[in-house]
What we know:
By secondary structure, the chain is an alpha+beta fold. The protein is built from ten helices and eight strands. It has a four-stranded antiparallel beta sheet. A two-stranded antiparallel ribbon has the order 1-2. Strands 3-5 form a two-stranded antiparallel ribbon.
Amino acid sequence: xxxxxxxxxxxxxxxxxxxxxxxxxxxxxxxxxxxxxxxxxxxxxxxxxxxxxxxxxxxxxxxxxxxxxxxxxxxxxxxxxxxxxxxxxxxxxxxxxxxxxxxxxxxxxxxxxxxxxxxxxxxxxxxxxxxxxxxxxxxxxxxxxxxxxxxxxxxxxxxxxxxxxxxxxxxxxxxxxxxxxxxxxxxxxxxxxxxxxxxxxxxxxxxxxxxxxxxxxxxxxxxxxxxxxxxxxxxxxxxxxxxxxxxxxxxxxxxxxxxxxxxxxxxxxxxxxxxxxxxxxxxxxxxxxxxxxxxxxxxxxxxxxxxxxxxxxxxxxxxxxxxxxxxxxxxxxxxxxxxxxxxxx
Length: 345
C-alpha cells in the first residue's frame, strides 16, 4: 500500500480510495466438519473393532460366536485406542502450531468403511495454512506429532498384550502376516517370553490398534518432502534435504519390489514429487541456526523410527502350509471355520 506523498493531490481534491487488506483471523475452522468426521471415524473404527474382537474371542475361528449388538461395545477397545493414538499425533502438531502462532486447522479424521480397509480409518491430518517462521519452529511442530502418538501407543501396546492369550497356532485358512516392529517384539517377549512350540499369541484388538499406530508413526517419520520426517530433515539440513527426499522415494520404489504393501505409500510419494517437487517449502528466516537440543531430538526421532519400522508391513499367508515363526503374527479369514481369525504372533 502506498500513499501519494510525492505527488499530492491539489488542496481540497478528494483522495482516491485505496484497498487495505483485512488479515484473516488465525485458527478459524468449521468445527462442525471436524466433529462430523470424528464421529464418522468413531463409527467406522468401532465396527472394525467389533470384527477384530470377534476374531479375538473366537480363537482363530475355533469357537463359534453369535453376532450381537454387544460386539459393538467391545469394538470400543480398538476404536478408542486407535483414535487416541492418531488424535495425540495430530494434536501434538496442532498445539505446537498454536504455541508458535502458525495458523493451522484442528485434526481432520478420515473414516473408511471396514469392508474396504480393516483399520476403519486412513488416519488423520491437519492443515497448516501459512509458512513456518524459523527452522526451530518447523522442527518442533514436525516432531511433536510422532512423539505424542508414540507416547500413547507404548502403554496401549503393553496393556493390550497383557489382555492377549497364548493359543495353538491355526492349522488351516488363509490371511495376512503383519510386520513385527522391534517395539512389538519387545512387548510380546515381556508379556509372554518365547511361546512354546505350536503356540502363538491371540492378540487383543488394542494390540492391532497399537500396531497400526506404529505403522503410521514410521511412515510419517520417513525423511520425505512434507512428511513429518521431511520437516525434520529440512529443519536440520536445509536445502540438502531435497536429496534425502529423492533418495527416500527411490528406496520406497525398491521396497515395493519386495513387498506390495509399500505400493500405496510409494504412489503417494511419487505423486507428491510430481506435483510439488523434491524441495521443501522454505521457512521465512532460514538463517537462524537450529539449537543443539533439536539435533538430540532428531536422534530420538530416529530411535522411534527404528522401533516402529517394519520392512514388510503386510504379506499373504496360507496357514498350516509351513511352520510359523514363534513371533509370527497374521490376520485373515479361517476358510474352514468360516469365521475371521485374529492377529497372531
